[in-house]
Structures are given as structure tokens and as C-alpha cells.
Specification:
Growth Hormone, Chain: A; 15 helices; 79% helix; disordered N terminus
């Protein structure tokens, strides 16, 4: 859809659709969000036991690949964000889907720790950086008044992916071993994510004569009920307390998210549960997160983003405490339910908060800067879990630490406030 004539024809066609083209964009982004979960830590957790058994690797070594991939994403995200603002999400998401699918399929050929690190770090870099920036950049460009529910739908799609991917891995591993599991994951990523993004994504509604939430540019008049949208540059955003409080919240919750997600399956197995039960508990957490994310999207602006973020942090803290004493499936499901509630909240609410606080004009650049902190924090979680487990033979100390960070995040959420519009 580049070039004057071609763009004009596209604008005319999309303006005459009987529905808002943003819903097509949302569907494409949901496919990418589902595919994103191929290298998610919850998916990797299904591979921890068979791969460490075959190779004799420690949990710390395996966790290090998640952390290193996150650090690489932290370095890349500030560079990717401005590309989103200039070029849109199509290029970023197509590259992320293709590289993730190929790298996870190549994990089936792993013969050494170095090979595992190279392939998984590529996939994890895409998961933590380009996918996040591209998905939420597209959604927040096409929606404003309906942004909360659009973000919730994207969160739902991602959680459905997080329900499906561990089960796909578990079934494939049972049939063809862990190498077959990685082939199945990589193929699913490419099949689900690539074609919709390649064929249908458009950078912004204004590029085709539309406005966010629906309507055409010619019909959009000033003085309507639409509330004004903030328009911060990255430099202006970095000077606000809101940027750093949202970042502090992020730094507190994401070690918990990644640290528990990766190690929850092996923790359940070490607590006496069967591998099949552990896999279903992981999927139950993902299903709960999907439902919770949708509910948070519906109520976020009614109860306030601050209160919703605080509830999410509190749910994460409760889940960490519940996991310490798990000894039966019902206790595992209760812990997973609380964990899923917290994860569903932060996945829906944090991107919404960044867009609502700072606007969409420089969303990629601002989100890219914040994402460096997020993925660095996220990278620390699995390493903390693995290291403390290897040192003390239990995940209990890590879970107590994660509970403390979660409750801290709830306090930070209640302090944060939207910034005043820039001069």
C-alpha cells in the first residue's frame, strides 16, 4: 500500500468496508500474539526436564539462555522502536515470526549447549523485543477510545497461545521426543503468524484515510466527544515521573513473571506431581491469564489503571506464596489461577498504560526505551530461580523473593499518575 495511486485506491476501498479495518489489524496481531508464545518461558518449561536429563545441564545453565536472550532484546529494543514509528508493525512482525519459527525448529538439531543458546537466544530476542513493540504498536495506532478492549483481546490471543504451545510441546514430546517437540512449536509459529501479518497489516489508519476506532479523516471534526490524546516525544516522556514509576512497576513484576513461568513445571514435578499434571497446570495458568486479561480490559478504565495494576501485582504475590507449599493438584491449580490472574493483568494493562500516558505518535520509541528495562528484569527472573534452586535444592527462597517484588509493585502502582501534557 505504498505510492500515491495505490494508496488512494486502498484508502477508498478500506473506507467503504462495512466494518472498521482496525478489526482486521486486530485479528492479524492476535495471530502474531499466538505465534509469539513459541519461545515463551512457559513453553520452555515443558522442555526443561527432558533436555536436562539428556544433556546433564543444570537448571541455571538452561535458564541462562532465557536471560541472555532478554539482554539482547534489551539492547535491540531502543533501536527497533523508532523503526515502528517510521515503518509500522508489518516489517517488524513478519521478521519476528519468521526468525522465531526457524530458530525454534533448529532447536530440534541441538547437540551442544552452545547450539541451544544460539537458537533459543534468537527466538527469545524476538519474543521480548520485536513482538512486543510490533504487536502493541499496531493495536495502539489503530485504537484510542477502544484501546482497552483491543489490548485485552490481544492479551487473550497471547494467553490462548500460551495454553496451546505447552500442550503442543507435551503431546509432540510424548510422541517424538523433545526434538519433535521443537519442530512442532516452530511449525506452529510460522503457520499461524506469518501470512496474516504479511498480507494485511497497514501502518496507521491515517495512511488509508481512516481515523482510530473507525470513520474517515474527512468526517473527523474537532470538538467531538473524543478526549484529546497525549503526544509525548521520547525525550519528553523520559523527563516525567510517570515514565519511571511505570518502569519501576515493570522491573518489579517481570522477574516474577519469567522466573515462575519457566520453573513452574519442574517445581510441580519436584513437589510430587506427574509431568502430565504439571503440563495441565501450566496450561490452566495460561487459560486463567487469558480470561483475566479480558476482564481487566473491560474494567480497567472504570476502576482506574492504578487500581487494576495494583490488583495484578497483589495476585502475583499471592501466587508465589501459594506455590511454595504445593503438594497436590488442587493446590497447584489454585496457585496457577492466582498467577494467571496477575499475568493476564500486566499483559493487558501495561501496554495500555504506556499508550494512555504518552500517546501513539512516538509509542515505538518510548516503548522501546521502557522495554530495555522490562526485558532486562524479565531476563533476571529465570536465572534467579535456577541459581537459587541449584544452590539450595528448592525453589522456596526464589518464590519468597518473587512475592516481595510483587507486593512492592502493587504499592508503586498506587503511587503512579498520568503525566501532564507536554507544553
Amino acid at each position: 500500500m505504498r505510492g500515491g495511486g495505490q494508496s488512494g485506491v486502498a484508502s477508498l476501498l478500506l473506507a467503504r468496508l462495512p466494518f472498521f479495518y482496525g478489526w482486521i489489524i486486530l485479528a492479524c496481531v492476535c495471530c502474531c500474539g499466538f505465534a509469539r508464545q513459541g519461545p515463551a518461558v512457559a513453553t520452555l518449561s515443558i522442555f526443561v526436564e527432558p533436555m536436562t536429563r539428556d544433556f546433564g545441564w543444570s537448571r541455571t545453565l538452561l535458564s541462562g539462555a532465557v536471560s541472555l536472550g532478554g539482554i539482547l532484546a534489551a539492547l535491540a529494543s531502543p533501536l527497533i522502536g523508532p523503526i515502528l514509528d517510521r515503518r509500522g508493525a508489518r516489517l517488524i512482525l513478519c521478521a519476528a515470526v519468521l526468525l522465531t519459527g526457524l530458530s525454534t525448529m533448529l532447536l530440534s538439531l541441538t547437540q551442544s549447549l552452545i547450539a541451544f543458546y544460539v537458537c533459543f537466544c534468537i527466538a527469545r530476542l524476538n519474543f521480548a523485543g520485536p513482538f512486543d513493540i510490533g504487536i502493541y504498536g499496531a493495536v495502539n495506532s489503530w485504537f484510542f477510545a477502544r484501546r482497552a478492549i483491543a489490548n485485552a483481546v490481544v492479551g487473550l490471543a497471547q494467553m490462548l497461545g500460551l495454553v496451546a504451545m505447552p500442550l503442543i510441546a507435551h503431546v509432540a514430546i510424548a510422541e517424538a521426543g523433545w526434538r519433535g517437540g521443537w519442530l512442532a512449536i516452530g511449525a506452529t509459529v510460522i503457520i499461524v503468524g506469518l501470512l496474516p501479518a504479511w498480507l494485511l497489516l497497514v501502518r496507521r489508519p491515517e495512511d488509508v484515510g481512516l481515523v482510530p476506532d473507525g470513520g474517515v479523516i474527512a468526517a473527523a471534526q474537532p470538538g467531538t466527544s473524543r478526549r484529546p490524546e497525549p503526544a509525548f516525544s521520547r525525550r519528553q516522556a523520559l523527563r516525567t515521573p510517570a515514565f519511571w514509576l511505570l518502569s519501576l512497576y515493570t522491573v518489579a513484576v517481570y522477574p516474577v513473571q519469567a522466573g515462575i513461568s519457566l520453573h513452574q513445571a519442574p517445581h510441580m514435578i519436584e513437589s510430587g506431581l506427574s509431568p502430565t499434571t504439571a503440563a495441565t497446570i501450566v496450561s490452566a495458568f495460561s487459560f486463567t491469564a487469558a480470561v483475566a486479561g479480558l476482564l481487566f480490559g473491560l474494567i480497567a478504565r472504570r476502576i482506574g489503571l492504578n487500581a487494576a495494576l495494583a490488583i495484578s501485582g497483589t495476585a502475583l504475590g499471592i501466587s508465589a506464596l501459594l506455590m511454595i507449599g504445593v503438594s497436590s493438584p488442587i493446590e497447584g491449580y489454585l496457585a496457577a489461577g492466582s498467577f494467571g490472574t496477575g499475568i493476564g493483568g500486566i499483559l493487558t494493562l501495561l501496554p495500555l498504560a504506556w499508550a494512555d500516558y504518552f500517546g501513539r505518535n512516538s509509542f515505538g520509541a518510548i516503548r522501546g526505551a521502557a522495554l530495555s528495562l522490562q526485558v532486562t528484569a524479565q531476563a533476571s527472573g529465570p536465572l534467579i530461580s535456577g541459581l537459587l534452586r541449584d544452590l539450595y535444592g528448592s525453589y522456596a527462597i526464589a518464590l519468597y523473593l518473587f512475592a516481595g517484588l510483587s507486593f512492592l509493585s502493587a504499592v508503586v502502582a498506587l503511587i503512579a499518575r498520568p503525566p501532564r501534557p507536554p507544553d
